[in-house]
């Protein structure tokens, strides 16, 4: 199975920030399609434009020029109200700082986007409960954020981002504030969401090990995508277990004694 449809795409997207006399070109013309049902990681050095690109994919920020399409809809053609609805219903955002309301329980936190969208409290809570079960926190619904581990808090944030059934789940350094175990927990969850439920996820990360678990890695540099590759595809083309004989018919060698040590070339 190879997903082809794009959940979101950018076309020659640029973003400049003007502060006083300084203009920073954060994103300098990025054209990329985010495939449905994939986990895409965006990596690259600090300041290369990762968060800026993610914000534009999530219709949180508007490009200086170029187009952003979410679910096939050009975001620029929407009025403020429709853009708000798009953000609220089609995009789930998870931030590095979990941004949970400290005085609300896990359930109330996860239900917030639905209540904001006009659902009754009962219905919102019902769906939030299902969301928390999905992220493995069905037994923690009444806990306040302070009673949860970092990894658990971030899973509540993921549940909150998922309750609206978004087309796109965007996460900016979701494991950045977590210890290794917590980070792995969240990464495993994101992988499962993609594998089991076909969720589309775009995640910014500094952690190359975490990025290696993605379906696709976009490496940014100076506001551009410098590399676009699939970590698993790289592993497949470089087998760890080398077959005794090359797959293609070996050339007859004039020195059979050297055969064992001869290097295969691609
Ligand atoms: N609101 C803003 N006003 C002015 N400059 C900004 C603004 N937001 C981002 N920038 C600048 O744009 C560039 C890209 O920022 P961005 O936040 O996208 O980088 P990043 O790759 O996410 O970095 P990090 O890994 O540190 O989070 C940076 O040089 C930053 O200083
Ligand atoms: Mg950033």
TrEMBL record:
GO CC terms of this entry: membrane protein complex; plasma membrane
Molecular function as annotated in GO: ATP binding; ATP hydrolysis activity; transmembrane transporter activity
Amino acid composition bias (Basic residues), ranges on this chain: 256-266
InterPro entries with a match to the protein in the record: AAA+_ATPase, ABC_transporter-like_ATP-bd, ABC_transporter-like_CS, ABC_transpr_LolD-like, MacB-like_ATP-bd, P-loop_NTPase
Pfam families attached to this UniProt entry: ABC_tran (PF00005)
Cell inner membrane in keyword set: no
Ribonucleoprotein listed as a keyword: no
Domain of life: Bacteria
Keyword list, A-Z: ATP-binding, Nucleotide-binding, Transport
Stretches for region Disordered: 229-266
ABC transporter domain residues: 8-247
Family membership noted in the UniProt record: Belongs to the ABC transporter superfamily. Macrolide exporter (TC 3.A.1.122) family.
Protein name (record): Putative ABC transporter ATP-binding protein
Organism: Lacipirellula limnantheis
